[in-house]
Design goal:
This is Arsenate reductase. This protein is an alpha+beta fold and about 120 residues long. The chain contains 5 helices and 4 strands, in the order βαβαααββα. It is globular. About 30% of the residues are buried.
Length: about 120
């Protein structure tokens, strides 16, 4: 498993605490320092089964500056959203946990983190 985190995020710290309590093996990616490129974002979106706007923090100041709330949420704008996430990683929802079965979850709840754990233990 890999978990994309911002150490300042309480949801990220909670997810790591639960993974540690469960004795899970994982690697940490501090995605503000080790910024995912467009290919990484496409891969994680495929694993999540989501679109880029689904994992975008649209209330962040950077999102407002970019006018993300006015961007179309369709296939014609998909690449534009992915480029924005690659250039502005603070906009990526967190934490994202990639499970060993090839799927991923946005681990903002204990249930989601446990789901990633279960998928990795199969």
């Amino acid at each position: 498993m890999e978990i994309w985190i911002n150490p300042a995020c309480s949801k990220c710290r909670s997810a790591i605490g639960l993974l540690d309590a469960e004795g899970a093996g994982y690697t940490v990616r501090r995605y503000l320092e080790d910024v995912p490129d467009e290919a990484d974002i496409r891969t994680v979106l495929a694993r999540l089964g989501l679109e880029p706007w689904d994992i975008t923090r649209t209330r962040e100041p950077e999102a407002e500056e970019l006018g993300l709330n006015t961007w179309p949420r369709d296939t014609t704008a998909r690449d534009r959203w992915i480029t924005a996430l690659a250039h502005h990683p603070r906009l990526i929802q967190r934490p994202i946990i990639t499970a060993d079965d090839g799927t991923a979850v946005v681990g903002r709840t204990e249930e989601a983190v446990r789901e990633a754990l279960a998928r990795s233990r199969r």
